[in-house]
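Octaprenyl diphosphate synthase
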Amino acid sequence: MREVDAVIARRLESGVPLVAQVSQYIISAGGKRLRPALLLLVCGALGFRGAQRFNLAAVVEFIHTATLLHDDVVDESTLRRGRATANESFGNPASVLVGDFLYSRAFQMMLDAHDMRVMEILADATNVIAEGEVLQLMNMHDASLDEAAYLRVIRSKTAKLFEASARLGAVLAGAGAQVEEACAQYGQALGTAFQVIDDVLDYDGETGELGKNIGDDLREGKATLPLIAAMQRGTPAQRELVRHAIETGAASELGHIVAIVRETGSLDVTRHAAAAEAQRAIDAARQLPENEYSQGLLQLAAQLLQRRN
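Structure:
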């Protein structure tokens, strides 16, 4: 990861001061670096030790960071990773344009791999992510959304880059089709579990731990799984209150909504869904050679369910 951070620092250089300033601001905020870590773990599990793994790990982090910059503008977010978002600090135009810079820099870096399969995976992933963003925008304030539609969004918007990161590790290692698919399945399941737990924390976390404002999803009119489950399990009056809150983004009702989500057992339902995805990831990781790296993949999936931020 130190090698990846060195690549990130080197490739963030720009002759335009604002580009470097905004890029450094969001990258230096830290974050979990899960996607590059996933790529490195898969490379390790499959025995690939080439330097290209550091370059592509930085590429997936750049793509992820670009999506964060754009997401925060679309969602009008003010807090991420415990501090003001880039759009809050530098304005929306700078955030959008620097996000574009990070996307284009990532595509420049992809060329270093000299591998059309790598290009195909990352080009397809960025396209699916963009579709997921648009799909989520279309679903805003839609209280009729069901679990299948919810999963479609997060598998496009969040899980796709996890899937691509794991698949890239297999491609770099020259793995066969069966192993590559197992890695991709691991990444997709891990990314889905990660987002489902994130949606739990929006109703069962603390702002200080989470690094973002509690209730942001409700304010944005997002019908996430805790709310979908609450409408399925609640009384008619509770269902109506949740429906109204989704359709209007009524943050003033947050306390009541949190109470309904907890009283109906919807957080347990959502955690169970995340656990099923984590188990799917574990099953996929068990198809890889047994070593300390594949053990790391197993531990990552198991520990994801315990995250608080």
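The chain has 17 helices and two strands.
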